Amino acid sequence: MHCPFCDHVDTQVIDSRVAEDGKLVRRRRRCEACDKRFTTYERMELSMPTLVKKDGSRVEYHRDKLLGSMRLALRKRPVSSEALDNAINHIEERITALGEKEIPTSRVGEMVMRELKALDKVAYIRFASVYRSFEDIESFESALKELK
After folding, report:
1. Which of 7, 49, 52, 62 is buried deepest, with most CB atoms within 10 A?
2. Number of domains in the chain
3. Residues of the domain holding 60
4. Separation CA 144–CA 148 (nearest Å)
């Protein structure tokens, strides 16, 4: 592991701990050259299914894209990073549990909406307004009624 401060190749693991219900390993490291400390995280890599978009094109799943869209909906909302990470983990667990090689993006979108609804109602409405392409006030009102 390269040191992020001096780019030295030799770092020593000082401490390892299991986090997130055994799904993540947190390692404290020390650079042997500059003596600075930093943390790395090790997560199991699962092969995620290919996502099929509405137009039929296929794209790879990227956690960062999902994180970005959820962060945008949660912008300036009182939701912790930990809660957001847990929501994304739940979505990924459901995706992998499907056991399919391809899934439609609409299915992932519904999973995102379910998680946002549990996290923050305002973020849910923000995401739903873009995801469901509300074209009139009635569509928006029906989504609000759904929350009540």
Report:
1. 49
2. 2
3. 50-147
4. 7
